[in-house]
Design goal:
Ser/Thr_kinase_AS; [RNA-polymerase]-subunit kinase; 8-stranded mixed beta sheet; 3-stranded mixed beta sheet; Phosphorylase Kinase, domain 1; 398 residues; alpha+beta; serine/threonine-protein kinase; Transferase(Phosphotransferase), domain 1; phosphoprotein; ATP-binding
C-alpha cells in the first residue's frame, strides 16, 4: 500500500470533496469533484498489539512491512449483530444518515484528507485505508498516525491526581497549547470541515509533550451540509446552540469547544460539567449569564429561554472573570477565553479571529510539564458507547 493516497492536500483544499455514498460535500474554492481515497491491503501491515476494543470496533497498533512505520488502524466491525443492523447503529451514532460501515470510514477518511492528510502538524495524520482480502465480510480499516503519548484528558486527569489541585499550568504554556489547537481548527474550517467533537479526549499529546494533535473525525460534518438530526458531540463541550437543538449551527461550535478546553487547561477541571442537556445549559448560563434575547433572537424563541431566567434568578452578568482572575489569566488571555465562550454564536470568536488577538503576538514553544506516569493515549483504552440525556449515542475513544 502507498503511504498516502494519490491525492495531495493542496489539491483537496482547492477543490470539492464529494462523497456520494455518505452525502459529504466539503466546500472549498474551485471546481467540484470526488476525491478518490486509495484503499490498500491489510496484508501490508503486521498487527503488533490491540490498543482498544468495544462492541462496535477495534483499534490496533501495526507496523508497515515495507517501511517499518508504526501506525494505528481503526476498524468498525460489529462482531455480533447482523450487518444491516450494525450499519444502521453506527450511522445513528455518527449522525450521518443511513449509510453503512464502509461509508462511515470513507466519510471520516475524506475529512482527514481535506484537512491535510498526514501533512498537518496539529491534526493526527491519515495514512490511508486498508481492506483485509481474507475477511469473509467487508473489513475496512482507517490507517492513522500512532501518537506515542496520552490524550489531553488523561494528561490533565493524572495531573489533578498527582498534584491534588496544586500547581496550575503556566499561562505561557496554555497559550502555546491553544495556538496549536486553534491553528488546527482554522485549517479544518478553511477546508470546509466542522469537527463537532473537540474535547480533551480527542486531543493527543505527542513528541515529548511538545505537540497537541486533534483526532477522531467520526462526528465531523462539511460546512456545506446541514447539521444532522440530534445534537452531536460530548456534553461538557457542546455549544449552547447545539444543546438547544438549533439546526443552523456552523464551525463556531468548534470554537466554543476550544474555549472549554482552554478553560480546563488553565482552571484544572471542566468548567461546565452538567449531567444532561438542560443541566449543562444551566451550568453555562450560571457562569456566563443568560443570553440577551434581543441580540440572539434564535435563543429568545426557544422554550428554555424563559425557564432559564427563572432558574438562574435573572443572572445577566458574567462571572467568568471571577473564576479566571488576573493572577491566573492576563487581560489578553481572558479576551481570548471570553471571546470563545460567548453564548451567542454570532458574536463568538472564530478560530481565525482568535489567532489574530494580542495574546498570540508572541508564542513560545509548547512544553507541557512532565507527568511520568501518564500512559500512552491508546494504552488500556476501550471503545465506549455513552448515552446522553436525549438518548442519543455515539462511538468515541476515551
Amino acid at each position: 500500500m502507498e503511504e498516502r493516497p494519490a491525492t495531495c492536500a493542496s489539491c483537496l483544499q482547492n477543490d470539492m470533496v464529494d462523497d456520494a455514498n455518505a452525502g459529504v460535500a466539503v466546500a472549498t474554492r474551485k471546481r467540484r469533484r470526488r476525491v478518490p481515497v486509495a484503499v490498500g491491503s491489510a496484508e501490508d501491515y503486521e498487527e503488533t498489539c490491540l490498543l482498544g476494543e468495544g462492541g462496535f470496533g477495534t483499534v490496533v497498533k501495526a507496523r508497515h512491512l515495507a517501511t517499518g512505520l508504526t501506525v494505528a488502524i481503526k476498524r468498525l466491525t460489529p462482531p455480533d449483530a447482523d450487518s444491516q443492523t450494525a450499519a444502521a447503529s453506527i450511522s445513528r451514532l455518527a449522525g450521518a444518515g443511513s449509510c453503512g460501515l464502509e461509508e462511515e470510514l470513507l466519510r471520516e477518511a475524506r475529512f482527514h484528507e481535506a484537512c491535510g492528510g498526514s501533512g498537518h502538524p496539529f491534526i493526527v495524520g491519515f495514512r490511508g485505508l486498508v481492506r483485509d482480502p481474507t475477511a469473509a465480510a467487508a473489513d475496512l480499516g482507517l490507517v492513522m498516525e500512532c501518537v506515542d503519548g496520552p490524550s489531553l484528558h488523561d494528561y490533565l486527569r493524572q495531573r489533578r491526581r498527582r498534584r491534588h489541585g496544586g500547581a496550575r499550568i503556566p499561562e505561557a504554556t496554555a497559550r502555546a497549547a491553544m495556538w496549536q489547537l486553534l491553528t488546527a481548527a482554522k485549517t479544518m474550517h478553511e477546508s470546509g470541515v466542522v469537527h463537532r467533537d473537540i474535547k480533551p479526549g480527542n486531543i493527543l499529546v505527542g513528541d515529548g509533550r511538545r505537540v497537541l494533535k486533534i483526532c477522531d473525525f467520526g462526528l465531523a460534518m462539511a460546512t456545506s451540509e446541514a447539521p444532522s438530526h440530534g445534537p452531536a458531540g460530548t456534553l461538557w463541550y457542546k455549544a449552547p446552540e447545539v444543546l438547544l437543538d438549533m439546526r443552523d449551527y456552523d464551525a463556531r461550535v468548534d470554537a466554543w469547544s476550544l474555549g472549554c478546553v482552554m478553560a480546563e487547561i488553565i482552571y484544572g477541571r471542566a468548567l461546565f460539567a452538567g449531567s444532561y442537556e438542560r443541566e449543562q445549559l444551566v451550568a453555562i448560563f450560571d457562569v456566563l449569564g443568560v443570553p440577551d434575547g434581543g441580540a440572539w433572537p434564535e435563543f429568545a424563541s426557544t422554550a428554555f429561554a424563559a425557564e432559564a431566567v427563572t432558574e438562574l434568578d435573572v443572572r445577566r452578568g458574567s462571572r467568568l472573570r471571577e473564576l479566571f482572575p488576573a493572577a491566573m489569566l492576563s487581560r489578553e488571555g481572558f479576551q481570548v477565553l471570553h471571546g470563545l465562550l460567548t453564548c451567542n454564536p454570532h458574536k463568538r470568536l472564530t478560530a481565525d479571529a482568535a489567532l489574530k488577538l494580542p495574546w498570540f503576538a508572541k508564542v513560545e514553544a509548547l512544553q507541557l510539564p512532565s507527568e511520568d506516569d501518564v500512559a500512552s493515549a491508546f494504552a488500556n483504552k476501550e471503545l465506549h458507547i455513552v448515552p446522553s440525556a436525549s438518548e442519543k449515542r455515539k462511538l468515541h475513544f476515551s
